[in-house]
Amino acid sequence: MLASREIRRAPVRFGLLAGAIGLLMFLVFFQQTLLSSLLNSFTGALQNQSGTVLVYSSEARDNLEASVLSPDIVGKVASVPGVGQAAPLGAATMTVLAKGQQIDVAMIGAEPGKPGQPTKLTSGRPATAPGQGVASSETKSFAIGDTVTTAAGGSPVTIVGLTAQSQFNVQPTLFVTFDTFTSMRKAANPNAKMVWPSAVAVIPATGVRPKALADSIDAAVPQVTALTRTEAVAGAPGVSSTQGSFAVLLTLAVVVVALVTGFFFLILTVQKTAALTLLRAVGAPASYLVRGLLQQVVLVLGVALLVAVGLLVTATAAVNTGLPLTIDPRALAISTVVVVGLSLLGVAFAVWRVLRIDPFQAVGRPGLGGIE
Amino acid sequence: MGHHREAALKLENVRKVYRSGDAETVAVDRASLEVGPAEIVALVGPSGSGKTTLLSISGGLLSPSQGRVVVAGDEISGYDPKRLTRFRRESVGFVFQSVNLVPFLTARENLLVVTDFSRRDKKKSKARADQLLTELRLEERADNLPRQLSGGERQRVAVGRAFMNQPDLVLIDEPTSALDTKLGEQVMELIVTEVRARGTAAVIVTHDMRMTHFADRTLAIVDGILGDAATS
Amino acid sequence: MKLALLELRRRPWRFAPAVIALVLLTGLLLTLGGLLDGLYNGFTGALRAQPGALLTYASDANLSVIRSRIDAATTAQVERVPGVEQVGGLGTVLLGAKIPGQATEASVALFGYQRAPGGVPAPPDKAGQVYADTSLKAYGVQEGQTLLLGPQRYPVSIVGWVSDTNFLLQGGLWGGLDTWRQVLGSARPDQVLASGTYQVLTVSTTAGADPAWVAGAIDAATGGRTQTVTRSFAVDSLPGITQQRSTFNAIIDTTFFVAALVVALFFVLLTIERVGIYAVFKAVGASSGQLFAQVVLQAVMIAVVSFMVGALLALTVGRLIPPQVPLQFSASRALQVAVGLVVMSTLGSAVSLRRVVRIDPATAIS
Questions:
Q1: Is residue A33 part of a domain?
Q2: Which domain holds residue C250?
Q3: Which residue of chain B comes nearest to C364, CA vs CA?
Q4: Tell me, what's the ipTM?
């Protein structure tokens, strides 16, 4: 095949092109992976807990950690019609000692059997009594049977279950009972007069939709903001700014991929014009030339893709991002389709150039070589 | 450069052999030639006769496999590529068959390219370029790009470029192959006028017998071997 | 007459693919750099400004300002350690601020301080008065306004501006220790601290004392109840700082490498087209070095022009981004990107060197 022979004879050119495109694809994939891992690390715990409506204090700006509700407000929320189950939810970052090391964890306290408990466990069982806890397992800091105490002392918590994809604010999460939460907070700050919950986790009564319930709670209790779980996840602090920043970065990277692929295949085609014209003049159909070009494009993009995926796997293992990077195959597939699709669009111009070649130009050309 | 009393070009038993695998091609076979300090010599032969190879060797573009090449007293046959580059910069001028002007430079700038690569005085070079343009009747076209010039005008710029570095020897490859008879005659007249005016020597390679009367002497070359044709 | 520059001027469209790609890559680099700097400054401003070489935390707080507690007795112990010149208490609380006339609340970090940080005046005379970080202007805050903080809407009034004092991406508000305690009591009754208890201590060392040694001495004197570190260590220990730096730098370095590859590819293709001209140049006496110098010159010019256009692009993008996205452009980062781009461009052009050297002047005549 003429197309692959040309590549074999000019490895530097095509190597550089595949390398550049591969690196750019890697940038897109890596940033995509970073984005989805980051978003999940911010809000995974929220997504995994059972309350489909979350009620925060209204000055908390949709921020669970900034929210604090007095017990009478919790009562008011619980008595709004349409509420199936309601329970206080405590959220706080604490320093704990695990395996002899001090690490920061997001502690989430919920009453056993009530909304706020993690819904999906990877192993073990939920926390049913004080002194038990379920940990998110990404950072491998916790295993079933481990004992965890706050750095300030206080009663220990035994890990009875593990869950995944449940980090909060880019920290490992520990799901405990609300009583355990309260006692750990008191142990950390003996000056505190009381421990108030951060939010109320609510499951609507049968037949009531979460959005409708959230609106009624908002109307009935003015000091709170009620969000559906989806809204809470989307509105959590850091989510929209992260998405905004990455949107800019990803857009720029994807546009560069398309441009580089398109431009450089165009240049390669223009440089071959003499040879291509000759081929047309001796009877090669236009479709043959276009097919050759597309074969090269597919080959180059294929190599680039391999480079990109290889680098992605290396980078997710090697770079210290502080959060567990999980490659999301679905997002990766979508990114690949977008990148390859745009690259092919870029190449369209080169294809048009090939189709435009007029075989008559082979005759009367002042010589294939020379400058003018 | 001043006039040297010695020959502008001396070839002694020059031989050029190309090897590809086991096969050997002899492009030039023991050619000997002497060109006087202000002499014009025409080299005539069919394509493949080795005349272009001989021209390249004379101008320091190729090194011979065997033999001596002496240009205006410099024995260049043993020069390394770097020294050959300096030699070409200072001592010879070329007029190429396919004109080879830089497409994005004006006529004047195409002349100045030659002195750009040397450490010559910029003002003097510019004055020299303008003078050449006048002699070649190109003053009006000095600021035109090659695509704005006619075929004959482009050829004249190429001729001017060959003289920019005040060479001892000018080597001209098929100057009329792309031009009709009338234009070809005009260009040859111009070349001869310039060569005579500066007392430079010239070797002109051509397959066009109609142009040989411009030269002082014509030599034939066939299959790499130089012979004498009738002198003019 | 410089050949390289003439070609750039007379045939600019020839260089469009490389320039356009580099413009976008510059935009990417400046945006990445701007995000990294914005995140860093927004997270660490308050700590970087603190006076003194050391910061003392409670040892069970894992270097978290918010979870650290230092009582009056410990503070007294710290003050007595040899090598300690001055000690100041610092406390903070993170909450939302309602701004008059604005629908959205701003996230703020209210600090109570004894010793003024760099760029911040001495604590305001009256309780309830604070200085505000200039970043809050983007949220509509004005001098003289009264902000309502926390769920109980505790009022504080803005009496002046300070800059680069944000903490954990929340706008810095700076008031006396009384103001801080009152706001804490109002907004977070479950986190109040006894009078005389601070969260961290800022410690200045006497002239000639080694800060690292003094830090160790402090922690020994308190029986291990404190953890004292240098200010820069404390800054780097803020959540996410080192990880942001390594992640962003990995992406930035990759992007620079892409720029080098794009330039390399471009000049390889350009050199192929120029083989004819270069052979002629060599025939009339140009050396490979002279020709290659032209290539490098063009690579540098392309990098410079692309950087300038790319910088405009980045500034435009920056203007369109909402204030919640911590994007900060700085001259030093811009200079870094410019220099990096020129270096990468030069390296990329070097890939064509062998090709230029291999061009045989004899081909001009055949």
A1: yes
A2: 3-44+241-364
A3: B96
A4: 0.90
